[in-house]
Amino acid sequence: MNVVWASDSASGREVCDALSKEKPAAYTTVLTLMNILVAKGHLVRVRDGRQFRYRPRVSRKRVLAGLVRDFVDRVFAGSPRSLMAHLVDESRVSAEEVRDLIQRMRTRKKEDRA
């Protein structure tokens, strides 16, 4: 999905080549996964000559929101506070990042009131 989101449209070969830069990926495996994403409604497949191009049907923001919500529900019993505490306890979040998050929360509260 990241490859398709980055270019807004990609062929199976382009996705395979991009993924293979990090770790070897079999073209047929990539196509199988892309077709699963088509069946699930995450990608749209459009014929382009002898090949297909894939376009995102769902935005990155929407997919990430769903994944994070599901993760927090399953792993942290639905508690974002527990997730954040875990990240702080494991030193995965710096003090600067915590300050930034607090500022973002304050800004969002102001926007919600408006």
Indicate the topology.
Blueprint: H1 2-7, E1 10-11, H2 12-20, H3 27-39, E2 43-48, E3 51-56, H4 60-75, H5 80-89, H6 95-113
Helix pairs in contact: 2-3
Verbal overview:
The chain is of the alpha+beta class and 114 residues long. The protein folds into two domains: 2-56, Winged helix-like DNA-binding domain superfamily/Winged helix DNA-binding domain (Arc Repressor Mutant, subunit A, Orthogonal Bundle), CATH 1.10.10; 60-113, no CATH class. It is 64% helix and 12% strand. A three-stranded antiparallel beta sheet has the order 1-3-2. A hairpin with a 2-residue loop joins strand 2 (43-48) and strand 3 (51-56). The longest helix is centred in the C-terminal third of the chain and has 19 residues, at 95-113. The model has no long low-confidence stretch (mean pLDDT 92).
Condensed summary:
With 114 residues, this protein is of the alpha+beta class.
Features:
single chain; 114 residues; alpha+beta; Arc Repressor Mutant, subunit A; 2 domains; three-stranded antiparallel sheet; 6 helices; 3 strands
By DSSP, the count of extended strands is 3
CATH superfamily of the largest domain: Winged helix-like DNA-binding domain superfamily/Winged helix DNA-binding domain
Order of adjacent strands in the largest pleated sheet: 1-3-2
Taking the alpha carbons of the first and last residues, their distance comes to 35 Å
Please tell me how large the radius of gyration is. 19 Å
The H/E string reads HEHHEEHHH
Query: CATH fold name of the largest domain, please?
Result: Arc Repressor Mutant, subunit A
CATH architecture of the largest domain: Orthogonal Bundle
The count of domains is 2
For this entry, what is the oligomeric state of its chains? Answer: single chain
CATH class of the largest domain: Mainly Alpha
What share of the residues does DSSP label as strand, in percent?
A: 5-15%
Mean pLDDT: 92
Note the main sheet.
3 strands, antiparallel
Low-confidence stretches: none
**Net shape:** elongated
